[in-house]
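ugh ok so i messed up the first submission bc i forgot one of the chains. this is the corrected input, ALL of the components this time, i swear. 904 residues overall. if the numbers dont match what u have on ur side tell me asap before i send this to the collaborators (the ones from the other lab, u know who)
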Amino acid sequence: MFDFSVITCWIDNLLRVEWGLPDFWTLAIEFVLVGVALLTAYALIALVLIYAERKICGFFQCRIGPNRVGKWGLLQVVADMIKILTKEIIPIKRSDKFLFLMAPFFVIIGSILTFAALPFGLGLQAIDFNIGVVYILAVSSLGVIGILLAGWSSNNKYSLIGAIRSGAQLVSYELSAGLSLMVAVVLAGTMQLSEIVEAQSDLWFIFKGGIFAFVAFVIYLIAGHAETNRGPFDLAEAESELTAGYHTEYSGITFGFYYVAEYTNLFIVAAIATTMFLGGWMPLHIPGFDAFNAVMDYIPTPIWFFGKCAFCIFMALWVRWSYPRLRIDQLLKLEWKVLMPITLVNLAAVAVAVTM
Amino acid sequence: MIENLKQRVLTLCPSAKMMGEYEESKMLTIEVPNENWHELAVSLRNEKDLQFDYLQDIIGVDDEGRLGIICRLFSTTYAQTPLVVHVWTDGRECPELLSVSDVWNSANLYEREVYDYFGIRFVNHPDMRRLFLRPDWVGYPLRKDYDMESNPLVLKNEPVADFERSERLELDSNGRIKESSFQLFDDKEYVVSFGPQHPSTHGVLQLRVSLKGETVQRIDPNFGYIHRGIEKMCEEYTYPQILHLTERLDYLSAAINRHGMCLLCEKALQMEVPERAVYIRTIFDELTRIASHLLGWASMCNDMGAITAFIYGMRDREKIMDIFEETTGGRLFTSYSVIGGVSQDIHPNFQKRVKDFLPYMRKMLREYHTLFTNNPIARQRMTSAGHLNKATAIAYGVTGPSGRASGWHNDVRKIEPYAAYSKVNFNEVTDTVGGSFERYYVRLDEILESLAIIEQLVDNIPEGDYKAKTKAIIKLPEGEFFERVENARGDFGIYVNSHGDKSPYRIKFRSPSMALVSALDPIVKGEKIADLIMIGGSLDYVIPCIDR
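and heres the new structure output, hopefully the right one now
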């Protein structure tokens, strides 16, 4: 396995020793580099996902999808991005201007902060907190503030209904999502993401953890999918009911922020599920099959990571394009009467099983 | 039977006057003075042996200087002769009639329409507002003395009040009329406006919905955003021209509406239509019905958030559009039926393509059930909301698949078979529960029945002419003519009052969609916003048909 920390260490060494920069400037340059790398990854992932969703959804619906701009429509998303950047931001009468413009930033910052802690590959992790899981849960739920603010400040009844729906939905599903991740924490015995991945070096939790890990994985996928506000959980947006829900009044790049955040959130949920249950960047290792394991190690770790993410994302797309939208009472019933009790029992059971 | 009914009506209301030629037209036409009208209406509705519980339409007329209404009544319990009641006002200055909206719920909107067009005010009507035209419209356009110049085109935006006020006329104990006005929605109500520009109102319909949280308290439909004044235009047009306008009412049942108008003219002219044309028209009607139900299914799925299902429905509807295009050149508006037959013969490929389509559609229906009907979310949502019982369906005049899902056997193809429907075997698909799921399912089952009808006809199209010879200028004889056909949304009625000219003196189309929207209020009370949209989809109304 190639350790990407070789590259990062080389840069660090170059700055400190070769060029002899003081600590402050070394760190400053490194921060900027990491920031640029993450933001680029952020934008690229969003673009790729938007294209992938449009193509995959096209095939689900017996259509071709974008095919005019560039070969196979590859440049369509870039063209759309340019369009959205040049569009006018329409000011809304009697809206709370400050909150209205701040709301998209909450949404986008919430998802960028999550990126910092994700292990994209061996040695490809910006910050490795010892409470990584709690950090990820904390920052990824910042998004709900942005949605509530958007609904409140827009001076639009659809937006308000959408935002309130979304508030109820996200706060509820946060519980199941968080608690089902705790199953992986119990299995690994740590909250540090790198160590959780390391703990899956012999076999991924989804196989090693038996029924508990499988149940937790499925519930996390459902709850995480609900947190991304995408169909069948797109009540906050609910195109056919609330036109566009909480972002009805947004235009131009402010809308673009919501749009991009939706896709990166989709990626983040897949990435967390991958890290916690599917071994993150860890190649598939089966105890006893050393030759097989060695071959698997030749595949670079980011490919493992993104491949597993792609699998989770495909599942999400599949569900989204086949299921009708839930109603608000069905949605809350599903969480509080089904997912939540199962998660709690599952967590208690796995705790007992691990201690025994 | 007609004689019995005549005697019965005379005992209930001795002042009623019988009007001519009722035996021939198979309906009883009476004239009732305004003072007795409400009383008679109550008896007609409630007497055990009469039970005229379905008010099909109220038609406003301005005939020979008199203003009045024509009500068309049917009984759903007995195969009674339909009753046509004329009620005239006293004079034109301040015409008032007694409202029957407390007897038949469907009268509510019909009377508002008459007020809008003729200025007849209905005493005891709960909400006497204009229905289609703007509140500041001057004059009543369907009166014969209406000045066409009285409403110049307004080119600037005016501020619009959030909630307009409405009027109410009540009779006090002394028999005097008391006028009062009220505001439609309370200032404290949380009113959300759905439409006229909204993805799920299926056209430019505005629904003002009073909400409490997510729960719908009350709903006020606001029509007129696509009002083209088709009935007024028809008074200037010749009958062959009117055919084109009928297509533009319910654009999804275009061929069926047009067929209805042709039938009316042929009946009035006592014209024989070649068998070949009758068969072709029936096949076209059924193909149109399938196309419409497919779109209805698709858009209902879309309303519930299943976008893939929407595309599937559109994809299969496209096949029918292609079949239409090959024979007629038109897709949505085929302009195919003409008075006396059809405009040209079918394309040589037509029969083969239709026969290919039948098994394909059956296969696709099974796929629809796998994709959507048996989906747990969809099923739970559809079965848990939007119940309409049979009595309410009849009272609001909810016909078509929506009414049949409530257990009301109202299929005009069965009650008064026209075209080739008496020659084919098909079932009238009904259900008893009347929920959203039943409306949804009845529609899909009707596609199967339509396929069966087409299957029986397509190989047996008789040889011969496709069109009977007609005069260059078609003039209908003097008199009143009624015709009803079953379009994809229900009972599509046409009334023509002819003075023997080449254009009608008064024409009225009964919109089945209007009844569907009027029934929205009792159905959605207490349901969630998401259900309001779903129920709208399950009723499957078409707005241009309402606004005309």
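quick check: The mean pLDDT of chain A is 85. that seems consistent at least. Chain A touches chain B at residues 57, 60-63, 157-158, 161, 165, 231-232, 234-235, 238-243, 321-330 (CB under 8 Å).
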